[in-house]
Each structure stands twice: as structure tokens, then as C-alpha cells.
Amino acid sequence: MSDQAERLINIFWESFLPLLRAGVAFTIPLTLISFFLGLGLALLTAIVRLSEWKLLKALARFYVWVIRGTPLIVQLFIIFYGLPSLGITIDGFPAAVIGFTLSVGAYGSEIIRAAILSIAKGQWEAAYSMGMTRSQALRRIILPQAARVSVPPLSNSFISLIKDTSLAFVITVPEMFAISQQITAKYYEPLLLYCEVGLIYLIFSSVLSSFQRRLEKHFDRYNAK
């Protein structure tokens, strides 16, 4: 084995633990917190857009339009670097959570709204015939069925989010990609280290994809009944 090959192997193993530690300490928590907050926001937005409240519908539609129509990195810059000019200063991690939550909320709301609209109108009518209000029908009849339809696209959004968190390095969050840049500056081996951090993202995404398949099978079992 040449000296260069041995050096690269040593760099790989020396950097693996710091990268993995950054993933566990920042990337995964950032993903989980943002996704579940965003999921709640998505559900609320979808329900508002299907409601009869014209003003709230317009606000929800405007929010989705803005978030879907602008780059995520621009949104992060506005939250972290732009808001201080208005006297609003937010630390890196909370700013990243806000940015990713807003993104998940906008895209997820379209998924949930489409899932709700896919439920046959007869389901609503049957619920009303049993004396349920609109909110009761939505909660007891429509949303459980819509959840099954939403699982695959929402799971894909979750997997995409764990990769999108790499953008948090631009607002000083020390997640995996930020750490890989620091290590690269030390060893001057960008190809090796960027491939290594890509490998760790791939491992995380593969594990999540496995959970996604199990979740889909779980819901398919109920659909079969």
C-alpha cells in the first residue's frame, strides 16, 4: 500500500467519528424537530385551505406560494441574516428549525390537501347522515383515510429534508456538511471528505427508506381489509 493510500485511509477513519457525531447531534435532531413541527403546520394549512374562511384561505395560499416559489437557502438567509436588521436576532439552530419547518409546512400542506380531496364525497355525506359536524367528520372519517394516502409522499419529503439540512451550514449550524468543510480545510482532501459525508447521508437516508417501506406495508395491510 502506497503512503498516499494509507494517508487517505487514516483521514477517512479519523474524520468518520466527528462527522457521525455531528449527524447525531445536529442533523438528525434538526430533521426530526423540523419535520414534526412542519407536519403540524402542513395539516393546519391544508385544513384552512379547504375551509370556508376566505381571509385565512388567502393567507394560507399566500404562504404556500411564497415558500414554494423561493429557494430554501434564500429563506434561511432572510431568517438568520435579514431579520437582525429589524431587531430580531435568532441563533443558528432555531433559525434553521424555523426555515425548514416553514418549508415542510408549505410542501406538506399540498400533499395533505390532495389526500383529503382524494377521499370520495360519499364519505363526507355518510358522516353527515350520522349526525357528525364537519370537524367531527374530518377528524374521525376523512383524516384517517387521507393519512394512508399521504404516507408515501410525506415519507419522501422526510428523506429529502435530511439531505436539505446540509444547507444549515450557511447559517453557522455545525451539522455534518459544516464539519466536513472544517476537516477539508485541515487535510486538503475535498474529494475524499465530501464523498465520506455523502456516504453518511446515504446511510441515514437508507435507514429512513427502510422505515418508510415498513410504514407503507403497515397501512397497506389496513387498506387490504
TrEMBL record:
TM helices/strands, residue ranges: 20-50, 62-83, 95-120, 191-211
Location(s), subcellular: Cell membrane
GO cellular component labels: ATP-binding cassette (ABC) transporter complex
InterPro entries with a match to the protein in the record: AA_ABC_transptr_permease_3TM (IPR010065), ArtM/GltK/GlnP/TcyL/YhdX-like (IPR043429), MetI-like (IPR000515), MetI-like_sf (IPR035906)
Keyword GTP-binding: no
ABC transmembrane type-1 domain sequence ranges: 24-212
Topological type in the membrane: Multi-pass membrane protein
One annotated GO molecular function: L-cystine transmembrane transporter activity
Protein origin, superkingdom: Bacteria
Entry keyword annotation includes Endoplasmic reticulum: no
Keywords for the protein's UniProt record, in alphabetical order: Amino-acid transport, Cell membrane, Membrane, Transmembrane, Transmembrane helix, Transport
Alphabetized PANTHER family for the sequence: L-CYSTINE TRANSPORT SYSTEM PERMEASE PROTEIN TCYL (PTHR30614:SF0), MEMBRANE COMPONENT OF AMINO ACID ABC TRANSPORTER (PTHR30614)
Family note: Belongs to the binding-protein-dependent transport system permease family.
Protein name: Cysteine ABC transporter permease
The species this protein was found in: Cohnella abietis
